[in-house]
Amino acid sequence: MVLGDGTAIRFAVAGVGPVVVCVPGWVSHLELGWAMPAERLFYESLANGRTVVRYDRPGCGLSGATDRSDVVELELEVIEAVTKAVRADRFDLVGTSFGAPLAVKFAARRPESVDRLVLYGGWVQGDQVSPPALRQHLLGLVEQHWGFASDVLVEIFAPDADAGFRATFSTYQRQSASPATARRLLAACYEIDVSEDLARIGGVQTTVIHRADDRAAPVAEGKRLAAGIAGATLKLLPGRTHVPFAGDVETLVDAIRAGLGLPRLPRTARPSLTPRQAEVAALVVRGWSNRQIAEELVITERSAESHIERILVRMGFRSRAQIAAWYAATHPTG
């Protein structure tokens, strides 16, 4: 899909049912995100009973780069274009983190298109998210030391996550956007203000969800969102993790599904690999070719290729990069 200015936008669709568009929080990568077990489970849980539409905003993941600085207006164009691409005249919006105020902006502008609005970890005014000195420090860090900054931000976004998730999510952020794009989007997070948009969301059933001790977005801002939208329901959950697919994900998924009018899901086991497939996946992480894997495991090159094909089918992946990202996330080295 291409916007009017020529920017290529990539989106992904999963599930069956009424359309729900998920507005991403900050940086994202459709392919690598689907390879992260926690993120994939989060979206698959929402896709049970809904057609879930995810997208990478301009400059992130699989979408094309852009020189435009009007981040918010550009995002509203993207949401409009994506919904047209999937032929949805009416749909639900789920906005997480920065995606929450962006979803508010869209719903205020197009309330006739939005059936249900679910906002998680959001805010009304970006300049209330953190003190000015800290905002400037983080912006400078992202711009000048993106590698170190991505580690610092993981500590803020997912302080209780294990070592495997932290390492994988830090890399995921860096692979999702350049330092310049990440800095521009973070600045937009701090600059957005939806205080005048809240009253315009008339007739849209809204659920605001916030973890009570969220380290990245103060719970006071979540309460302001709920208070400003007529008829909105506020659900406070325990925890201090900001990333929606980290921490107590099951409780959060239950709350989001309730906001979408969906029932709670039964807990199910995730697919796993055989011991031999796990060995192959560990070598894929190293970037080894089929021939190298075959030589290491003393099997034929065709057998190595077959193992990789079975891993892709078993896990629902499409590329070796997804295998590598999944294995790194689920097999921490310390």
Automatic annotation (TrEMBL):
Task: Name the Gene Ontology biological process terms.
Answer: regulation of DNA-templated transcription
| Top-level lineage group | Bacteria
Q: SMART domains recorded for this chain?
A: HTH_LUXR
Q: What are the protein's UniProt keywords?
A: Hydrolase
Q: Which residues form the HTH luxR-type domain?
A: 266-331
Question: What's a Pfam family in this record?
Answer: GerE
**UniProt GO MF annotations:** DNA binding; hydrolase activity
Tell me if Ligase is a UniProt keyword of this record. Answer: no
Which PANTHER family does the protein's record reference?
Answer: BIFUNCTIONAL LIPASE_ADENYLATE CYCLASE LIPJ, HYDROLASE, ALPHA/BETA FOLD FAMILY PROTEIN
Q: What is this protein called?
A: Alpha/beta hydrolase family protein
Please give the organism: Kribbella voronezhensis
Q: What is the lineage of its organism?
A: Bacteria, Bacillati, Actinomycetota, Actinomycetes, Propionibacteriales
